[in-house]
Fold this sequence. Notes:
Blueprint: H1 15-32, H2 44-54, H3 59-72, H4 76-81, H5 84-91, H6 98-114, H7 122-125, H8 133-144, H9 153-163, H10 172-185, H11 191-204, H12 223-227, E1 243-254, E2 257-262, E3 273-274, E4 276-279, H13 283-286, H14 300-314, E5 319-331, E6 334-344, E7 356-359, H15 371-381
Parallel strand pairs: 1-6
Antiparallel strand pairs: 1-2, 1-4, 2-3, 2-7, 5-6
Helix pairs in contact: 1-11, 2-3, 2-8, 8-11, 9-11
Amino acid sequence: MTQSSEPDLFEPFSSVELTKFRRALRRWYQRRARDLPWRRTGDPYRIWISEIMLQQTTVAAVVPYFERFLDRFPDVEELATAEEGDVLRLWEGLGYYSRARNIHRSARQLVEELNGVFPETVDELIKLPGIGRYTAGAIVSFAFDRPAPIVEANTLRLYSRLLALDENPRSTHGQRVLWAFAEHLLPRRSAGEFNQALMELGSQVCTPTEPECPKCPARSVCRAFAAGRQSEIPVAAPRQQITAIVEAAVAVRSGDQYLLRRNPEGQRWAGMWDFLRFPIEDADRHIPESGLDSTRPVPSRLARQLERTSQDMAGIEIRANRFLTELRHGVTRYRIRLQCFLAETDASANRMADGFQWVHPDAFSDYPLSVTGRKLARLLEAM
């Protein structure tokens, strides 16, 4: 889609108005821009890491992760030579762990195929694992100051309001409109600063609720503001149906060690370590909504299911001793009640199949765990 195919859509942004908007936005950005660590550099590696971390994660949460990650992996060569487990361990708590695996794969590809040099075009960057059109545009404009449009959560909301877009901005057509508009706005020079300013405006002023429209440098050309429709736009995406499930996490103990399992490719949290974890069949029959009582034995029917499934997974016989705790969390469209159990085994801790490891609680910190896995590990450490 090009600008000419939607002649009315970008009408408020004539060349004169667009020039005024760009100037006003730059002046606002110079006053209001936050001092963030990834804005102090033109290094494409650091910009890339920050942009991947910022996907699905708030700025406040990312800053300490970004700084720790760069301390450990200061350049693409260090990252490329690292073990995947070390990368995942530093990513632990950020979630969406496929991002960490993709940057590790991309680092190796950059070093092996391009001598560690980042491509300077969107078309070349999107060939790397985990780099889409937005991330590629961010790297190109922020690191190399080349014109490249960007559409992410904050600018999606900003553009939708500027245009008073009356459709789901995440739909195929909505995305086509917004990417064309992003390109329409983009200056030929200082594109990186301009894109940063757009993102900052969306984050700090054009917020999801109660936007600060009187302080916005774009209010004179904002259709949603003119019509008083800021609260209606962007159009909300259809709400995803939530599925409630119950899972078990079984901490199998042999002597003073516990059994950990490395999640294989294709499964949730691939590459991370965890205790034996699986869905509980007919959970409504076994577990009341209020949870189990840690002072009483595990119900016999549930104990047999835990023992049978654990043996199928690890190849060892266990005895489900007692309930430890319940952890509640969400993963994509699932709301999970994780029932945590302690079990014993007579199996030797010296031998175990690939993908399993006996670990003393003192060494839990050496293994990348999911958030719930880490909570259970800390409970076991304190026992």
